[in-house]
Amino acid sequence: MLIYCPEPSPRLSYVIDFISQEILFEKAVVCTDAEVFRFYEGVRINYSETVFQEPNYQIYPHGLLKETGIASQPVNMGAWKELPVFFANGQGAGFDLFAAIFYLLSRYEEYLPHEKDEYGRFSHRCSLAFKEGFLDRPLVNEWLQQWEQELLQLFPAAIFRRGSYRFIPTYDIDMLYSYRGKPWWRNLGGALRSVLQGSYAQAIERWKVLRGRLPDPYDAYEWLDALHLYCRVKPIYFFLVAQRQVGWDKNIPTSYKPFQEMINYYASVYKIGLHPSWQSSVEDNPTILKEEKEWLEVVADIEIDKSRQHYIKFNLPDGYQRLLDAGIRKDYSMGYGSINGFRASVASSFYWYNLETNAPTSLRIYPFCFMDANAIFEQQLSPQQGYTELMKYYAAVKKVRGCFITIWHNIFLGTDPQFKGWRELYEIFMKEDAYWDATG
Hints:
- The chain has helices spanning 10-23, 34-38, 97-105, 128-131, 139-154, 184-196, 200-210, 221-231, 257-269, 278-282, 287-300, 318-326, 372-378, 383-399, 410-413, 422-439, and strands spanning 2-4, 29-31, 44-46, 57-58, 78-80, 83-85, 166-173, 236-239, 271-274, 306-307, 330-331, 350-354, 359-365, 370-371, 403-409.
- By secondary structure, it is an alpha/beta fold.
- A five-stranded parallel β-sheet has the order 9-8-7-15-14. Strands 2-1-3-4 form a four-stranded parallel β-sheet.
- Strand 1 (2-4), helix 1 and strand 2 form a beta-alpha-beta unit.
- The longest helix has 18 residues, at 422-439.
- The chain starts with a strand and ends with a helix.
């Protein structure tokens, strides 16, 4: 594929690299020479206002990719082959496909003035995807699928790379156990609170768990191990290892030996990553993140290069830059902590583009689209409704042959009666869908 553009830019190169990763066998080349473009015998993409007689697919530039700064952009919505589009111009392809992809992947709107949610995060209500009703669609992947078909009409001999659907189940271990491993005063306080509230059964359960007569209600680990083995899937576990248990960081103390032993074991059989604490994202102290990462590396006895923010708490560009500075190279936080959907409108991994420096980085982003906590607390879905929601996103990602990344918590997959039904729906999905995808 040869792309004619008289004024190439780092932003255009970034988009072309992503497109090449998704649908091509070789990286597309950007060309500034009109004569070379005219006589090229492969797929010709004309990213300019110049008119050529030779067959080419023309995309009229919006102008965003030539810019170097950050400014509010006029977003003109339109439709293309029944798909919602923006940066519509009514010429050539009808919209600037390259600029639209860049706007979504770079999270351009998150650098502009915007409303924060109650946790200080970019509010999903400010996003173009939410406002225009495509938050539940991997729109970038859908665009590229349609674009392939249009290019094949112009260039029937073209061969495009066909991606494969993938499923990556991921787990956030915020609290290893409900009762076990907590300091005696926390268990005593919890028991007294249960008694004062009349929850005698819970107080008795706590006592039995601590005496080893009952399994801890948050202990779903052996069950998950068996499920992964049966379904032949490879999970990723993210561990919250805050050295100070304050505020939203309520993990088991890192001095608890069974906690350390579990991390070490999981690092030997699965992929694991860091779940950076709330403190690391809000305090002006970059050493907190580095200390957590170093502690996890020592206990796991491996290098840690993956992360996902606790409570999906991050803001751009500082949050991602902090990860890079700490040595993280793969992040799984791209999604909302307030609603399920595609935050970057894509079901493929991509590199973070730092708009402040106007350059791509080495941080690879793996977006998720479904999190149990969103379904339970934010959207207040029943397990039956949650299953329908899960299947909706599963079908959307599978249709575009993308990567389906889900977030689950051991808290909801254990035996706590408060969350009855969620473990069962996950097992149904894994055995009736994930299993056949892995074995088919």
